[in-house]
Design a protein that fits this description.
heterodimer; A: about 230 residues; alpha/beta; Rossmann fold; 6-stranded mixed sheet; 3-stranded antiparallel sheet; B: about 130 residues; mainly alpha; Arc Repressor Mutant, subunit A; two-stranded antiparallel ribbon
């Protein structure tokens, strides 16, 4: 498939006069795990929300597998938001059934086995769970879909290092060559090994988009080192 | 346990180095089936594309063979493994001489020291960073 999984052309988003994204053009291929990296307030979440159709562009356009954000694109995109939106009166199992009803590509068995591996109590209500455990539930739901584009906004920020390893392993196991995973995070050193490519953005603009290997081959640097250099405070 | 990687070299190069070490030390035996790309990715905790790239490198030098539909195997050719062993040994020897030179040893002094170590004349219970 030659068509890009996510394509932005001249994409801008202003909040009032404040540009969260400015004239961003980028085309993300299929079958890659890509890091979306940048300092606080660089526009990472804005980009992800635009791809989900939760925000509309001020200028330019964005397409997922050729579709503008809408009904078709939403069946293809699995989105992990910064904060969980699951109602706190639901039990974990009710959340699973909710997703199963809602998304045709939801894999129930996969969800159950992930919950067990992460030792999430299936019958507990969301409000009784810790913040980290709630995040695990949300991630299980998102990764149990067989989507074309996974948009993960800080998937490992709130969980302990052991769960982090499992979650990264889960991403590795569940994505396939037809899907692309875009991960936004500040924990670069933790995700670096699983990234094919990385995007640096700052002040809503593209700073660099390159492959992890080429960075090491050309500059002999890890993404983490490069990030600290480029965005030195 | 995820594998450890350094920052300077591309990860696929380090993955292929580690698989070669596995073959040379017998963790992966001659003619044995290797884990699939996806299994390797989870074991090493790296991207499957990275594993694929590392395995292709090893395949191009003949250390690994693909058998249709069944997967990838360590070569049965002893000579190819011996060649890899020689290459790795030479690399380590040169590296060692270089690190000793950085400490101020001439090559002859290093060789003498190795002789002494071989004969058990060198204390080894000291911490190297002391």
């Amino acid at each position: 498939m030659s068509e890009a999984t996510l394509e932005c052309t001249g994409l801008s988003k202003y909040f009032g006069t404040n540009p969260a994204l400015h004239n961003l053009s980028i085309s993300l291929p299929t079958g890659k795990i890509i890091g979306l990296l940048g300092p606080n307030g660089s526009g990472k979440t804005t980009l992800i929300k635009l791809a989900c159709g939760l925000l509309t562009p001020t200028e330019g356009n964005i397409r997922v597998c050729g579709f503008e954000p809408g009904i078709e694109s939403k069946t293809l995109v699995s989105y992990l938001p910064e904060r969980t939106y699951l109602p706190d009166w639901m039990t974990v199992m009710e959340c699973i059934r909710f997703f199963q009803d809602f998304y045709a590509d939801f894999d129930y068995d996969r969800a159950i086995s992930m919950l067990q591996a992460l030792q999430v109590p299936a019958n507990a209500r969301m409000k009784t769970l810790s913040k980290g455990t709630r995040e695990k539930v949300q991630l299980v739901l998102v990764m149990s879909r067989r989507a074309r584009l996974y948009l993960l906004d800080e998937p490992i920020g709130g969980v302990d290092p052991a769960a982090r390893d499992y979650i990264l392993g889960t991403i590795l196991k569940n994505y396939n060559e037809d899907s692309t995973v875009l991960i936004s995070t500040h924990l670069i050193a933790d995700v670096e090994k699983i990234l094919d490519e990385f995007i640096f953005i700052q002040n809503g603009q593209l700073v660099s988009y390159a492959s992890t290997d080429s960075l090491r081959e050309d500059l002999g640097k890890s993404i983490d080192q490069y990030f600290r250099e480029v965005f030195r405070c | 346990m995820a594998w450890e990687f350094s920052n300077e070299k591309p990860i696929y190069v380090q993955v292929s180095d580690q698989i070669v070490s596995g073959i040379l030390t017998g963790s992966f035996k001659m003619g044995e089936k290797l884990p699939s790309v996806r299994e390797f990715a989870v074991i090493a905790a790296v991207n499957p594309n990275t594993i694929q790239k590392a395995l292709s490198e090893l395949e191009s030098v003949g250390l690994i063979e693909t058998q249709r539909n069944t997967g990838k195997y360590v070569t049965q050719e002893g000579s190819i493994i011996e060649m890899a062993r020689k290459k790795r040994g030479e690399f380590l020897a040169v590296e060692f001489l270089r690190s000793m030179a950085a400490l101020g040893y001439t090559n002859d002094q290093t060789i003498r020291l190795l002789e002494e170590a071989k004969n058990g004349e060198v204390m080894t219970d000291e911490r190297s960073d002391a």
